[in-house]
C-alpha cells in the first residue's frame, strides 16, 4: 500500500467542518450541482438549498434574487434545476474580503441573463448569469454506416462550435482535466463535423486549458 495519500484524501483534508457549503469548498474550482430540495432556514439565512453530492447551500440575498428572477418565488420550481457555484474572492464582510459563493450558470436559460444587484450599501452592479449548456445531442449510427466514427449533430453547423466550446469551458471551470482531454480526443474523431477554422480554434483553446490544468495538477488526471 502506498504511503502517499490519494487525491481524494488530500481534498477531504481541507473540507471545512460545517453544516453548509462554504466559499472555501470552492477555492479549487467551481462545481455544477443539481437542486434536490429547498427548506426554511433561520432569520439570517432564511433559505436552505439542498444540492446533490454536497452539503446544503445557503444563498445570500443577491443570489436568492437571481434564483427568484429565473425560476419565480415558488421554491418548488427550483427543484431539479442545475447551477454552477464558484468562490468570488472579492466578496466582503464588514469591509474585509472574506470570499463568498456566487452563481455563474443556471439551467433553464436560453441566453445569458443580466441583473442589476446590490453588492454593497448604496452600490449596485450588473451580474450576468450564463445558461448551462448540455453536450450536443447525438444519435447512434446504423450498423454498417460508412461514417461510424462521426457524430450526427441535431444543430446547424454554425451552432456546433459555440456549443462545443461552452461545454469545454464548463469542464475547464470545474477543473475536469480528464474531461477536457476526452474532448480533444473526440474532436479528432468528429473533426470533419466542424469547419476548418472552427476546428483549429476549438483545438487550440481546449489544448490551452488542458496545459493550464496540467500545470496546476502536476499532470495528474485526478480532479
Give a quick summary of the entry:
It is built from five helices and ten strands; from the N terminus they run H-E-E-H-E-E-E-E-E-E-E-E-H-H-H. By secondary structure, it is α+β, with helices and mostly antiparallel strands.
Describe the structure.
This protein has 223 residues and is an alpha+beta fold. It has two domains: 13-131, no CATH class; 149-217, no CATH class. The chain contains five helices and ten strands, in the order αββαββββββββααα. The chain has helices at residues 7-13, 61-71, 157-173, 177-190, 196-217; strands spanning 31-40, 47-51, 82-88, 92-93, 96-97, 100-106, 113-120, 123-131, 138-139, 152-153. The strands form three sheets. It has a six-stranded mixed beta sheet, covered by helices on one side. A two-stranded antiparallel ribbon has the order 4-5. Residues 135-151 and 219-223 have low confidence and may be disordered.
Observed structural traits:
223 residues; alpha+beta; 2 domains; 6-stranded mixed sheet; two-stranded antiparallel sheet; 5 helices; disordered C terminus
Amino acid at each position: 500500500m502506498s504511503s502517499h495519500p490519494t487525491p481524494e484524501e488530500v481534498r477531504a483534508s481541507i473540507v471545512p467542518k460545517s453544516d453548509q457549503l462554504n466559499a472555501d469548498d470552492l477555492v479549487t474550482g467551481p462545481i455544477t450541482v443539481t437542486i434536490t430540495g429547498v427548506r426554511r432556514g433561520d432569520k439570517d439565512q432564511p433559505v436552505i438549498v439542498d444540492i446533490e453530492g454536497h452539503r446544503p447551500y445557503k444563498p445570500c440575498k443577491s443570489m436568492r434574487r437571481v434564483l427568484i428572477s429565473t425560476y419565480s418565488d415558488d421554491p418548488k420550481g427550483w427543484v431539479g434545476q442545475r447551477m454552477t457555484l464558484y468562490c468570488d474572492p472579492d466578496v466582503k464582510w464588514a469591509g474585509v474580503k472574506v470570499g463568498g459563493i456566487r452563481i455563474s450558470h443556471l439551467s433553464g436559460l436560453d441566453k445569458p441573463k443580466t441583473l442589476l444587484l446590490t453588492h454593497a450599501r448604496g452600490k449596485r452592479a450588473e451580474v450576468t448569469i450564463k445558461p448551462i449548456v448540455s453536450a450536443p445531442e447525438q444519435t447512434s449510427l446504423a450498423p454498417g454506416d460508412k461514417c461510424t466514427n462521426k457524430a450526427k449533430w441535431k444543430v446547424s453547423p454554425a451552432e456546433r462550435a459555440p456549443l462545443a466550446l461552452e461545454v469545454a469551458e464548463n469542464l475547464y471551470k470545474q477543473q475536469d482535466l480528464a474531461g477536457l482531454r476526452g474532448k480533444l480526443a473526440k474532436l479528432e474523431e468528429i473533426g470533419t463535423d466542424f469547419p476548418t477554422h472552427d476546428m483549429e480554434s476549438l483545438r487550440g483553446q481546449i489544448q490551452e486549458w488542458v496545459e493550464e490544468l496540467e500545470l496546476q495538477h502536476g499532470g495528474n488526471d485526478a480532479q
